[in-house]
Prior knowledge:
five-stranded mixed sheet, alpha/beta, single chain, 7 helices, disordered N terminus
Amino acid sequence: MSSMVRPLASRFLLAFDAGSVSGAEVSRGLGRPQVRAFASAPLAPGALVPSPFDRNLRRAEEVRAALARVLQGLGGKVRSACLLLPEAVARLALVEHTTNASAVEYARFRLAQGLPYPAAEAVTELLPLGRGRSAAAAVRKSVIAEYEALAAGAGLEQERLDLTPLAALAALLRQAVGPTRTVDLILGDLAYCLAAHHGGHLKVLRQRRRDPGPGEPERLRDEAQRTAGLAGSGNDLRLRVVGVGATALLTWLRGAGVAAGGGWPVPVGELPAEAAEAAWLGEALA
């Protein structure tokens, strides 16, 4: 066995949403993965409009410029990256299936019923949950192609493409929830999803559009409580909140007497404050 210390392996993640383009360098060594660098560039309203069926990059030059600033903020050394697409581009559902072989086909059938475009134009992805259940997502091929072309135009090799809510949910599922009814609230700029656990198993997965402005914290709390009720009876409820605006919402929830916390620790130190609200970082850190 060699006594040489193996260098830390780094991976880069790039995330897109209506309000910004963000990126992080995450290193994996002998200990817990660490965020080595984080960068974010804001987008003016209307430059990127996440949509499940329409063109997303409305002002592509602005999005390309924001991506270039993020790459520069990561040290100009990004050659390949995992792309994280915004929540609002996908349709999500919790599906049950008898075998793994039938899972994708059944998910495709279930999701097709509510798609605003032909089912043949959708790409279906699964996050296996065990016990014959999966979290499924459908995204239009033309929407995926926009983000892939954006990355290719920046000279990047695409390692993988994922959805922010599925990446966050995968990380949250690796954190023990115990017997307490738990609802995970994953916030994006324009949409959010709620995942309710009961008895240690995911029971309900819901997706909603955000309605920012006065009263949003109350509405999010009420939706979380409604989702918990769909998962099972009981008075106990614990919320885990990640994503855009999570810090302010957690402060409000705790002030309102709701048991709430984050999903995973994000080192703030020298990192920008936005890193603490990057739901997509969970997949790399958890």
